[in-house]
Amino acid sequence: MNKMPKxxxxxxxxxxxxxxxxxxxxxxxxxxGWDEVDNVGDADLVLYTTCGVIDLTEExxxxxxxxxxxxxxxxxxxxxxxxxxxxxxxxxxxxxDGVSFGPTEEVRLDDLIGANVSINDVFWDxxxxxxxxxxDPELAYSPEELxxxxxxxxxxxxxKDRGFLEIYNYLTKGRFFWQEDGLFEVKVGDGCMYNCxxxxxxxxxxxxxxRDPGKIIEEFKFGVERGFPKILLTGDEVGEYGRxxxxxxxxxxxxxxxxSRDSRIALRYVSPSxxxxxxxxxxxxxxxxxxxxxxxxxxxxxxxVLKLMRRPKDIGSFLDLVAKIDVNFPGVxxxxxxxxxxxxxxxxxxxxxxxxxxRSGFDYFSVIRYSRRPNTLADGMDGHLDPEVIEExxxxxxxxxxxxxxxxxxxxIFDKFVLTFKD
Length: 423
What we know:
By secondary structure, the chain is an alpha/beta fold. The chain has 15 helices and 13 strands. The chain has helices at residues 16-31, 55-71, 84-87, 89-95, 108-113, 143-159, 163-170, 201-205, 213-225, 249-256, 272-288, 303-309, 315-328, 347-360, 387-422, and strands at 7-12, 35-36, 45-50, 77-82, 99-100, 183-187, 189-190, 209-210, 230-234, 264-267, 291-295, 333-340, 364-369. A six-stranded parallel β-sheet has the order 6-9-10-11-12-13. Strands 2-1-3-4-5 form a five-stranded parallel β-sheet, with helices on both faces. A two-stranded antiparallel ribbon has the order 7-8. It is globular, with a radius of gyration of 22 Å.
């Protein structure tokens, strides 16, 4: 007789990929006969999935673990998953010396709970019984953004077209867009084939491991049949999907699109190199509307900094390509990320990043302060900048990102208004 406890509580401060995995864990527990509860104190088992990509998320995770320990009832157990156990195990051990596992070790859950259904056989079906994400900053709208939202709501009502609101959301919510209703997620792989100098996630997830295309197609068809209008292909490096299997993202998309019906496809985390290399094959998919969104990180506009980051330093061809996509395929949403304050970044290097932001054609920018991560090449570099310098550059880059976003929003809304009015 199975005498295992049956109440589980899940919580996460992880990124979109870890959030996806945590929802999959919730389904996994349900399939194995567990009930998910809303409070730590009601649980026999607590699973907390972590992020450690920057120092702020690491600190939040450690504080949350300490809090959860204090809320555990007698005899209950805490397990820590996600990236932090592999990014900074020394810090984790300082607050928690129990069972933990990294992203590539999730199969350990099978033995830990005596599973009848293996985690390897579970995919997230889009059902959210509970939202587990805690630790993301709250999405706060500025007064200007609230005024814009009033206009967008008015246009959506007058023309009975939610496309105006979609434009606003994709140019305002940024990384929060995964909270959108009607978005189904299919994970296509884990890990990354690159070795960026600042990236602690590589230590947690390792090299690219692309999932079997047959399973991806099966899950994609499930989302289509359930009526999801948008399907996000997610992973740590979607653009290089299949490189480890002798295949490619384009081959996968060509297999998915005939099954898509009216569902549109979003691509999360597409490297600049993969976008440039596959552009000629991706262009018809942008043009048709089958692929309506991608995220691809600039990180820096300086070739010298990019070289230090161990990223391709030919940023110019990438920026020109994104600007071309912006002109030729105006319906495609384009998000990016920049890191400010990387070791040895000069004022001139930073100005090149600002210039890259201006010329690129991206709609939305996530601006990140450089954060030291243990066991990364960047952590051991000379020339780390003073926090005051990093903060000053961060504020300037954020201000520019806001200006670009406002210009892009107005143009997109106006262009849609003209097209809608003509129709």
